[in-house]
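Quick look at the format.
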Amino acid sequence: MKIYICQVCGHLEFNAIPDKCPVCLSPKDKYAQKDSIFKESREKSPEAEVKHVPLIIVNKQCGLIPETPCVDILVRIGKTMHPMEEKHYIMFVDCYQNDKYISRVMFTPLSVNPAGCFHLKNVSGKITVVENCNIHGYWMADVAL
């Protein structure tokens, strides 16, 4: 799989570069190919996996929007919860469905826990969650719906 990173906001795209970054709207020339981005994070900090790999929970019955077909994707960063400190924190979590970006949750270090929820209209396919730690880099996990 080819992985491209927006050098402005850190957003990742899989397999192809969009005309504009869906997060910061930067043009496609702001992307750089970085196929080993996840491998580099694991190799740099193998002990960090327990606090970085996203834990994904799928609720097939949406608790907030029950009147339409909806699936809740609950995300927690780390089996052991990642710290959210001024000097070490999760910057954002991006959610993808079938390798296409759908949404981002951004975090401030001292105000929230490293967790979020995505309410999906399309209830099939593969969900991939990517997180970015300001110290330990990019980590990901995926699940099938």
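Next, a different chain entirely:
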Amino acid sequence: MDTLQLKNKIIKRIIEIDDVNLLKSLELIFNTSDENILKFLNFAHENLQNQEMNETEDFSGYIKEWVKSM
């Protein structure tokens, strides 16, 4: 995807947002330097990756019930 396509995709997504608080938050982010935006987005991305890696389903309750019914 080239730069123009990415910009258009981002603009379309922003246009769809109706939440004023979210728009104000985006405005704050866009009013900072590109370097600070990059730092923030890298931090957020790393946190999301860590959350996804740490999320595991807990089947212990299901297993206990299954063992009881045997």
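The chain has a mean pLDDT of 85.

See the schema section for token definitions.
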